Amino acid sequence: MLVVMGTGASRGEVAEAHRRLEQMAPGVTWIEGARQSVFAVAGDVAGSDLASVRSLRCVERIVQVQQPYQLTSRAFRPDDTVVSSGNCKIGGGNIAVIAGPCSVENEEQMVRTACLVKSYGAAMLRGGAYKPRTSPYSFQGLGEQGLKLLEKAREVTGLPFVTEVTSVDAFAAVEDSADVIQIGARNMQNFPLLQRAGKSAKPILLKRGLSATLEEFLLAAEYIMAGGNPSVILCERGIRTFETYTRSTLDLSVIPAIKELSHLPVIADPSHACGKWSLVEPLAKAAIAAGADGLMIEVHPDPDQALCDGPQSLKPERFGRLMSSVGKIIAAG
Amino acid sequence: MLVVMGTGASRGEVAEAHRRLEQMAPGVTWIEGARQSVFAVAGDVAGSDLASVRSLRCVERIVQVQQPYQLTSRAFRPDDTVVSSGNCKIGGGNIAVIAGPCSVENEEQMVRTACLVKSYGAAMLRGGAYKPRTSPYSFQGLGEQGLKLLEKAREVTGLPFVTEVTSVDAFAAVEDSADVIQIGARNMQNFPLLQRAGKSAKPILLKRGLSATLEEFLLAAEYIMAGGNPSVILCERGIRTFETYTRSTLDLSVIPAIKELSHLPVIADPSHACGKWSLVEPLAKAAIAAGADGLMIEVHPDPDQALCDGPQSLKPERFGRLMSSVGKIIAAG
Amino acid sequence: MLVVMGTGASRGEVAEAHRRLEQMAPGVTWIEGARQSVFAVAGDVAGSDLASVRSLRCVERIVQVQQPYQLTSRAFRPDDTVVSSGNCKIGGGNIAVIAGPCSVENEEQMVRTACLVKSYGAAMLRGGAYKPRTSPYSFQGLGEQGLKLLEKAREVTGLPFVTEVTSVDAFAAVEDSADVIQIGARNMQNFPLLQRAGKSAKPILLKRGLSATLEEFLLAAEYIMAGGNPSVILCERGIRTFETYTRSTLDLSVIPAIKELSHLPVIADPSHACGKWSLVEPLAKAAIAAGADGLMIEVHPDPDQALCDGPQSLKPERFGRLMSSVGKIIAAG
Amino acid sequence: MLVVMGTGASRGEVAEAHRRLEQMAPGVTWIEGARQSVFAVAGDVAGSDLASVRSLRCVERIVQVQQPYQLTSRAFRPDDTVVSSGNCKIGGGNIAVIAGPCSVENEEQMVRTACLVKSYGAAMLRGGAYKPRTSPYSFQGLGEQGLKLLEKAREVTGLPFVTEVTSVDAFAAVEDSADVIQIGARNMQNFPLLQRAGKSAKPILLKRGLSATLEEFLLAAEYIMAGGNPSVILCERGIRTFETYTRSTLDLSVIPAIKELSHLPVIADPSHACGKWSLVEPLAKAAIAAGADGLMIEVHPDPDQALCDGPQSLKPERFGRLMSSVGKIIAAG
């Protein structure tokens, strides 16, 4: 940790800062610069100590040399984590495609989609039962009934499924039913939900928040791992920028960046990121080429009739084409 | 609602779209352009109908003429809403300053701060008992014990207090104790929490999300009002941009914009927005000059020792100076 | 063009707007809604007329159905434009890699890099002679001497080169020397420079501005084409977001989006976008997988000694590895 | 300067970095941490040396303790700079309002507006003769003829005027005619233009770029001052964010931040920032309350007929009302 003192810090303030820092950690070095002085503190500093240093009026800023996340860091576990659910493996060289409709609407839609995406090679199903919606007047999902339909689709296809949970209250119901539990972008910093996920025995698929930095994303995963759950799949789904042609901006640079910083698997959701079906296939290929461990793709048997996010849903045949071209990218790996 | 058909839409697709639209609403006008045609649909269209139109492959985009929020709109209620708690009124010409520490730390700190900010003219107390923290290793707040200390500070000063709730689980405890319940920026789209707030009899202070548009902000308030709670105070606390000198970018243009679009009171939190105590006073003055109905200011008796957000906390005397200069801006109003 | 009238527009104002619109274009349809009325105007409206409608106080907003760019649009030219320079072709299925150092430093560095990147398959050289630098105290490039060194490298390798021009003053010198002229991100809306480029017989490589929307990017290219120069290569080089781990955020969704909207070739510059050499190869592969017509890659024989942007420069062998893996992605097509 | 070595840096690399750093500056301290080591370098390091350190593969990052700008810094000149033009003074407690139309359209419009804004208290005129326009098909301004009309307005009112220059070519013409020369947001990093401005004897009004950080803004001013021109007025005009209700997001926190970091005067342009006339007055008041040294306000005698930016232009009477309410904020100071 480097503590940069302000230009106007007095001798007394510098001495007081020095005294405090030495109480916190053994190795404190004082470097006097032309206009500003800096303290270098070796070793770990507790979070509360850190806050107390940051609060000192004479401190201009603190530069943390080490990353604030630990369990999620590559340093903590040099080998790639592989998250498994049924026959589906994600990470460590295993690439999986998760597919299905945005919302579970009815049995026919869900089962038919499940069979079709399986036939094209999807390894896991997706479908929203609890839908976080911007407007209170939009379709909010089928809730527990939706979970039953997902179970039916699993029964028919043998594929595991992932579905989103939006509250601690509904967590147990989702946990009992789903194979993988999704925490959506809007809840990436819903800390009680992350803490609950940390106590689950099921893998968690954690989506990046709309304006979350990479560090915040890894710290959200750290909440889950610190709670005791080592099975976290990270998912890039686009960040909010000034561009309006696409719904969000898919940030594929986080894929290789996460590979450097963390051992956790990372997948991409091009459907939600761009919001336009015609851009999904090229972005899916790009995500795999960038090193993603998987994809999450929206597929609807009849997008023209979808209750939610139809414009970004692929028709099954288009999904088949995507699987074929993504397969070539994987092979080119 | 305007439905813009894509350039490649065939006659058959246009006819099908026309047929569907006429099932939804009576007044559908078809305007054939040189290259693209447009349908204008008068009257209200249900949310699910809207999704089904948006999903049509031949539709390029939908332009909504009317705002998607209703109860929060100025059209719904032309007069300013005034939210009251004890003697404190916010909105409709009533300007109130809410002050206190970021986190409740102990009785001495909370009560002393409360007395000091009251002496300088604060009308409501603030203090965090449940703290949403980016890192699982940061101080997470005193929880229910913190609520007790806030009650103590209320008892001593007679001032009402606002404190944040971060989960549906803890809602009842906060609701029983607090005068006004805060939903923080990270939970602005925590829809189960908003729905719970809609059932409360206590006023809700809703902070804008870090990357929330004005429309999403008003739709979050709409969740609360649609649930039956008419007492919502909006709070601008800075949005995330590329600028790194300040923690967030305080967006003061939303203050007069909200005044045009909505009847709800709106306040500003310059402390969290900028993250630097030296910028708080000028931004507080600016917020009031822009038309804000109030301010939320962090004050700590000894910021150098604060457990949280010390760098943005004002010392009590500086807060006194802020109250004096803000008072002059109000008078100049 | 759709003209949405404000909720408060009076009968007289609507009539006046109607009168004005009919003077501008023949087909004006008036659609009266429940609360707001809309005019639909078929056919083209001149820019100055548009401004005069937009300025009407009773107009809430204007929705343009047609794209504001013409010559750059896919509608104007359905087939892909292929830009050629020497043996290097870009667009219409031709993929080219442009490589070289950020700055031209000396003959040995430039010629050696040129020979090496040629040996690995680069089709064009790059190197900065006129450097736009954020600080006046940074190395500003060798200017005309740099052009001479680039010519030398071309002579030795037979490869064409692209180099940046930063002012109308220096345009003639760059135009005489370079094969392709680059207009950098900071000058994407330097309109006199774009107009000058429109009069050139040399192809222009136009980089997207740091906060430019896709529409603004295509309008900048429109300036060049409207001036008479049909040879424009677009280049995505990252946009500015809140993320700080990478220098900018490479927006690969614009690659397929540009392919839909425009006939112009589009390439990606992952080196400048991410600012970290270790992320360049995965992002280069991703860009090609997303459909890019080429890449621009920084290569330096000894990045540890580079005068500029060393941290994002690849060593020649790493560039060779990139060419090999990118080649596999191209083959997987 | 602090040089943070990567976690994987070998002993040999650390030694090589140490050797290089010692060649650059006398006071190099080596601090060995648990996992990473850091070098602290006291004193100034030349820009090219800095680049060569940054390029070392074993260096993770460089933290600059001192600001990269010098002449624009408060440390360089502790007292506020006052920029004068005729009777108009800006900075050091002098607050001035600059007003006029977006574009100069004709003599009647320009002179009438000038007389009206003078009668309400404006201290300087504004009007665009060279207009940077996103589309090549938009009105591009009257050029030199526009300058003549501005001179006429100055003659009639006795007020100085500011107008934008968009190229080095047109600089001399604008310099001969105008009292203050504006460099617009799109040219904030047009370095040849900044260098030309540095050689001028006229004051420069420099607008912040749409995605410029505060540091880049001050470095752009540094270009002008380093060229020899000490008279720079900074102007905040809104930055680009995801919010679409306003055109840009006025960032008022930079006003007090600039006051801390620099001695240069800073004004705000709420008209361009918000793009909606109804928000201009509250934001103008807010800017002054935040400490701005002046305002730039668009006024048009008949905004319904404006050739450019009518929706954000105030009618003269509304401008009068703004001047009155801003006057009260100044008095409340």
Structure notes:
4 copies of one chain form a homotetramer. Chain A contains 11 helices and 14 strands. Chain A has 2 domains: 2-63, Phospho-2-dehydro-3-deoxyheptonate aldolase, domain 1 (Alpha-Beta Plaits, 2-Layer Sandwich), CATH 3.30.70.1140; 83-332, Aldolase class I (TIM Barrel, Alpha-Beta Barrel). The longest helix of chain A has 17 residues, at 316-332. The two termini of chain A are 39 Å apart. The first copy, chain A, is α/β, with parallel strands linked by helices. In chain A, the strands form 3 sheets. An 8-stranded parallel beta sheet of chain A has the order 13-12-11-10-9-8-7-14.
CATH topology of the largest domain in chain A: TIM Barrel
Gyration radius of chain A (Cα, Å) is 23 Å
CATH architecture of the largest domain in chain A: Alpha-Beta Barrel
Given the C-alpha coordinates, what overall shape of chain A results? elongated
SSE layout and pairings?
Four copies of one chain form a homotetramer.
Chain A: E1 2-5, H1 11-24, E2 28-32, E3 37-41, H2 47-54, E4 59-63, E5 83-85, E6 88-90, E7 96-100, H3 107-119, E8 124-126, H4 144-157, E9 161-164, H5 171-177, E10 180-183, H6 191-198, E11 204-207, H7 214-226, E12 232-236, H8 254-261, E13 266-268, H9 270-274, H10 277-289, E14 294-298, H11 316-332
Parallel strand pairs in A: 7-8, 7-14, 8-9, 9-10, 10-11, 11-12, 12-13
Antiparallel strand pairs in A: 1-3, 1-4, 2-3, 5-6
Helix pairs in contact in A: 3-4, 6-7, 10-11
